[in-house]
Design brief:
The protein is α+β, with helices and mostly antiparallel strands. Helix content is 61%, strand content 14%. A two-stranded antiparallel ribbon has the order 1-2.
């Protein structure tokens, strides 16, 4: 996992929300008439819904974005060291704005400085 891939997380989440909105707005709903499979074959209405064929590319894009998002989340969750995992979670996953190293150091506490947190992040990426 590279720093560039991690930085894409928030953009991936935003794009995923946009794609989901497009898919939901292009979903077609309707009703059809059917009957029970067994006697007395009572007639009733059945609701159906689907996506217009022109928007299938959005479904494929959504699947790709979800895979990328999950890959990043699993990477961060898989970091064994708790402090390092928190650094990565604060830096890339939580919130809507990229936090400063100073803010992350304050959140982690324990006498950490902005430079210390940044270097721990940098060393971890270099190690993998």
């Amino acid at each position: 996992m590279t720093k560039e891939e991690l930085k894409q997380y928030r953009s991936i989440v935003a794009e995923l929300n946009e794609v989901n909105d497009r898919i939901n707005s292009n979903t077609v709903h309707g009703t059809v008439t059917g009957s029970d499979a067994e006697f007395p074959y009572v007639k009733h209405c059945i609701s159906v819904s689907g996506v217009e064929p022109t928007h299938i590319s959005d479904i494929v894009l959504r699947q790709r974005l979800e895979r990328q998002k999950n890959k990043i989340e699993l990477f961060v969750a898989g970091i064994l060291d708790s402090e390092t995992r928190r650094i990565f979670r604060y830096r890339y996953i939580d919130g809507t704005v990229m936090p400063s190293w100073q803010w992350i150091a304050f959140q982690i506490g324990g006498g950490n400085t902005a430079d210390g947190v940044r270097m721990k992040h940098k060393r971890f990426l270099k190690k993998i």
